Amino acid sequence: MSKQEIIKVAMIDDHDMLRKGICDFLMGFGFEVLFEADNGKDAMEKMAQSEVIPDVMVVDINMPVMNGFKTAKALNEKYPQSKVLAFSINDDVQDVVKMLQRGVKGYILKGADPEELKKAITIINEGGSYFSAGVAEVAKEYYKQFPQ
């Protein structure tokens, strides 16, 4: 990441302490946190008001008002230039597949090390995809359905 290309991130999670702590880590890693939101509806409103679109949006799945599935779908439809990284404690196969179907570029488990989150955001921002070890096999099987 060059100095002029600071990755812009949005953090969307309903747990205040966790969200704020993750934002602190992200800023410590040199990312710019454009905004944080506690649910998808709030995130969509902040996106509409924002002059700058985040490069990567970290989205929790289980949130009130508008969950991560609906949020990822809405963000990918309205802001396709921004990449969505699912962020959940849940490694359930159905949830992983459902998020992949909604266009997420990665899926990281909340128990991951902060360095892994940094790596995931960087890889996704560069056009790649990233999956925590606990969900990588599910993603690999999912992508087999779409031959190049």
Quick gist of this model?
The protein contains 6 helices and 6 strands, in the order βαβαβαβαβαβα.
Structural notes for this entry:
The protein is α/β, with parallel strands linked by helices. The protein has a single domain, classed as Response regulator (Rossmann fold), CATH 3.40.50.2300. The protein contains six helices and six strands, in the order βαβαβαβαβαβα. The protein has helices at residues 16-28, 40-49, 68-78, 93-101, 114-125, 133-143; strands at residues 8-12, 32-37, 56-60, 83-88, 106-109, 130-131. It has a six-stranded parallel β-sheet, sandwiched between helices. Helix 2 runs parallel beside helix 3 (68-78) and helix 4 crosses helix 6 (133-143). The longest helix is centred in the N-terminal third of the chain and has 13 residues, at 16-28. The radius of gyration is 14 Å and the shape is globular. The mean pLDDT is 91. This is Transcriptional regulatory protein DegU. Residues 8-125 form the Response regulatory domain. Keywords: Phosphoprotein.
Helicity, as a percent range = 40-55%
Rg, nearest Å: 14 Å
CATH class: Alpha Beta
| Beta-strand residue fraction | 15-25%
CATH superfamily: Response regulator
Low-confidence stretches: none
CATH fold-level topology: Rossmann fold
> In order across it, which strands form the biggest sheet?
2-1-3-4-5-6
How do the helices and strands follow one another from N- to C-terminus?
A: EHEHEHEHEHEH
Main beta sheet: 6 strands, parallel
The whole-number mean of residue pLDDT values reads: 91
Number of strands: 6
Shape: globular
With helices defined by DSSP (H or I, 4 residues minimum), what is the helix count?
6
> How many separate structural domains?
1
Q: Structural class per helix/strand content?
A: alpha/beta
CATH architecture: 3-Layer(aba) Sandwich
Distance between the termini: 29 Å
